[in-house]
Amino acid sequence: MKELHLSINGVNCVCMEGETVLDAAKRAGIEIPTLCHDDRTAHYGACGLCVVEAEGNGKLLRACSTLAAEGMVVHTETPRVIQARKIALELLMSDHDGDCLGPCRLACPAGTDCQGYVKQVALGNTREAVRIVKERLPLPACIGHVCPHPCEAKCRRGLVEEPVSIAAIKRYMSMAELNDPDRWTPERKAPTGKRVGVIGGGPGGLTAAYYLALMGHEVTITEQMPKMGGMLRYGIPEYRLPKAVVDAEIAEIAAAGVKMENGVKLGRDISFEDYRKQYDAVVIAVGAWKSMPLGCAGEELNGVYGGIDFLRSVAEGRPLEIGKRVAVVGGGNTAMDACRTAVRLGAEAVSVVYRRTREEMPANDEEIDEAIEEGVDFRFLTNPAELLGGDGRVRRVKLQVMELGEPDASGRRSPVPVKDKFEYLDVDSVIVAVGQRVDPAGLPVALNRRGIIAADEGTCLTDLEGVFAVGDATNKGADIAIAAIGEANRCAEVADSYLRGAIVPHRAPFVSERKVSAKDYEDRERLPRVRVENRPGEERKHDFKPLNEGYTPEQAMREAKRCLECGCHDYGSCDLIRHANRYPIDPARFDGGDKRHHGSERRLVVIERDEGKCILCNLCVRVCDEVAKESLLGLVGRGFTTVIKPEFRDSERIAVCRSCKLCAEACPTGALKIL
Asked: How far apart are CA 130 and CA 154, in angstroms?
């Protein structure tokens, strides 16, 4: 057979006469994307992704069916080729009715594979569950205890009856593994010789350090406090997150190769310039440790404390003097931690002052309910107008009565003062929990107009070369711990690329999402979530012990089995989504027309068919016909309504299908699932 020579993207390639351009590219290790080609079947060319340009030919050619010719000069990534592929992918994705990832995973700021680890717990495999979650989250036990679980708000089980208790499952599996001496441990890549300094030992800093260490870099965390943990240790009460859990997970991060130094403050013990000289890259993760001021007369009085300062003092074993009557101002989770901590310190009358109604409170409903059970009084639609004192100490709060006006930028209705209407509250102390801010002292990096470190959204880079910043100290300011962890994870990936010589900004992957309603789940059995009973409020309000012991193994497995497994089983190996993320695409511009909506069925017995994910590449039909020689599948219908369906004429055919499964293995999407 004659040998042919051609050029593909400037690479001299060799193939045999009768082979295609796609064959020649494969021989040279050059990928030309395709969704409908299989070396075992005849050329088809349906998907349109394998188009290329050949010099001297004015048309785009399909590489899978164009025969190679001597001296041919081919280009696979020209602007014209890329545009054609993008249009083909946008058309396919605009009609693709399937979920790449579960809505729980998409809602998690760290992108943790909730569906994956929940499934492993349902199977009784906590080790694999922890391995999955630690791909994105190095502190699963801590987060399992304290996360406000935005994943659960998007869980589609809520369309049936109640969302899956994802956070409680994460807490169970992580604690089970922490208590197992034979627990899973990660592997580190070969040493790179690069050194990274991480400033701040909170959730963001610990996360960035952990993943950078696993990538082979030498990482040191520098923390000003006596111990690592940041707000997990100093901002969250013991009854919500036992410090033994924090210690255990930090020890695992240290075991992964992260060096830790405590009691070192930049600007006091070492200048930033001198610190920076020690490392090839620096990640700033200092958090937001300053409480926002109340902004009213009298806040300089003794007995007025910031929420963060108050909680830190308790964590350090030196609680501040609060007296018997305490007012906590604010409506977030810090305010809930503060009021419930005040109760446990012996305060007899604790009131939460909040300028909106309960419906607008950002705190978790569970936290509010538990605070009420512990005797906390809520003064909604009131706002401090003035703090009144005696002998230099706060004695009374003058409260402006409020009413709700129009929604503000956050979507919540803005509180408006009711003219000349006030209430008074006698107090011994006031704890202000209205927000947090960063203290950038000692850090010579650019700040935004809010006084927060400015970091590029795609790279986490500051205005200084090789200096990154993540977490509460950057851009939008204080947020939940899992948000800082997610940003730190992305930062580690970008910093790794920087240290290896070619910085690659983070780009959120394109994913397909189904639009569903409760009607789609009418056939599901109602299975209410498995609940863990808290200790009675009257009992727990007197100590800092955990509210409950969490799930038992049986409870965790039963709850995990409620998962609907919304995300695609084939996401990790799906060619369609891989190619869709090769180029920036915008399928929404083709969303004007109808979209095919099909269910799934199991007539193939061992294979589940999801017609909504099918792209009509016809590969399954051709593999069944040309490779398996069975012809059990065929195209049914015409035009837009075309679908692929099986045809079984007897039980022997079903037996053949059971032993074959070639169609599912060839499918380039998740349309076929082996059961």
From this structure: 22
pLDDT, tens digit (0-9, with 9 covering 90-100), for 164-174: 999 999 999 99
Classified by CATH at the fold level, domain 597-674 comes out as Alpha-Beta Plaits (3.30.70)
DSSP characters for 348-396? SEEEEEESS-GGG--S-HHHHHHHHHTT-EEEETEEEEEEEEETTEEEE
The predicted structure's pLDDT at residue 595: 65
Token duo for residue 391: 């002998």
Reading phi first (left if > 0) and then psi (alpha if -120 to 50, else beta), residue 149 is in: left
CATH superfamily, region 195-289+437-499: FAD/NAD(P)-binding domain (3.50.50.60)
The arrangement of secondary structure in 292-435, i.e. its CATH architecture, is 3-Layer(bba) Sandwich (3.50)
Q: How far apart are CA 126 and CA 120, in angstroms?
A: 7
Predicted confidence (pLDDT) at residue 647 exceeds the cutoff of 80: no
Alpha-carbon distances of 511 from 94, 115, 585, rounded to whole Å:
11, 16, 11
332 CB neighbour count, 10 Å cutoff: 22
Structure tokens at 351: 């009131």
pLDDT at 13: 93
Beta bridge mates, 195? 218
Answer yes or no: are the C-beta atoms of 600 and 611 closer than 8 Å.
yes
